[in-house]
Amino acid sequence: MKKKSRKITWREFRYLRKGQFNNHLLTLKNFSEDKKNCSKNFLHFINMCLCKEIRCKDFNSTHAYLELGKAIDLAWLIFNKSGLRRKNKKYVLPNHSDEIDCSCNYRLEVYPPDFLTKMFSYQSHRDWYTAIDELLFSYLDPSFSCTFLSYSEDLIPLQETLSDLPIVLKTIHLNEGKIDK
Fold first, then answer.
1. 116 CB-near residues (< 8 Å, 6+ apart)
2. Cβ of 88: how many Cβ atoms within 10 Å?
3. Cα 11 to chain center, whole Å?
4. What is the CA radius of gyration of the chain?
5. Which domain holds residue 164?
6. SS3 string of the chain?
7. Residue 168 falls within a domain, yes or no?
8. In the prediction, which pLDDT does 103 show?
9. Predicted local confidence at residue 96, as pLDDT
């Protein structure tokens, strides 16, 4: 029996406005064509949140946080609209591997269907919100302890996924909104 997918609404998204939800391909285009290096900014944001010694006063952490949230929302919207399904987490990180292994050698080094499936199998859409919220809290208050990082092995998939996310979104944009050829 085929599982019926439920319709998602814009109210499920924290960082996409209704117009951005309804015209997600334009939002994807605007995000992908932004001249900033989002991968580097996202990774820098994560590292600064976890290590107060490397913080720089000129880095706009709020903007990075909001862009990261928008990227997660875009990924979740594309994941749902494409009909991809989550896998069991034990197949995503076999033997407690330290990274989310994604198929490479696709336009910009990451194969979008594989990446999105693994991203949302590793953590739900809401769990990604929790992760970036806790990162921001730890940036604002260095005494705050991130509960999602119960083990140091959780840090590597988080960094890998969030720093590769802009590459995946740009790859989807370059493929005219399709996640596969």
1. 75, 78, 79, 82, 84, 168, 179
2. 7
3. 19
4. 16
5. 12-90+108-175
6. CCCCCCCCCHHHCCCCCHHHHHCHHHHHHHHHCCCCCHHHHHHHHHHHHHCHHHCCCCCCHHHHHHHHHHHHHHHHHHHHHCCCCCCCHHHHCHHHCCCCCCCCCCCCCCCHHHHHHHHHHHCCHHHHHHHHHHHHHHHHCCCCCCCCCCCHHHHHHHHHHHHHHHHHHHHHHHCCCCCCC
7. yes
8. 44
9. 41
Please write the tens of the pLDDT for every residue from 48-101.
Answer: 888 777 878 788 888 899 999 999 999 999 999 888 887 766 555 544 444 444
What's this model's pTM, rounded to 2 decimal places? 0.83
Structural domain count of the chain: 1
pLDDT digits (tens, 9 = 90+) for 155-173: 778 888 998 999 999 999 9
Structure confidence at residue 159 (pLDDT): 86
Contact yes or no for 99/118 (Cβ under 8 A): no
Mean pLDDT over each residue of the chain, to the nearest integer: 80
Q: Which residues contact 152 (CB under 8 A, 6 or more apart)?
A: none
- 16 burial (CB, 10 Å; 0-12 / 13-18 / 19+) is buried
Output the CA angle 41-45-51, nearest 5 degrees. Answer: 140
Q: Does some domain include residue 96?
A: no
Tokens standing for residue 47: 């590292």
Dihedral sign from CA coordinates of 113, 119, 125, 131 = negative
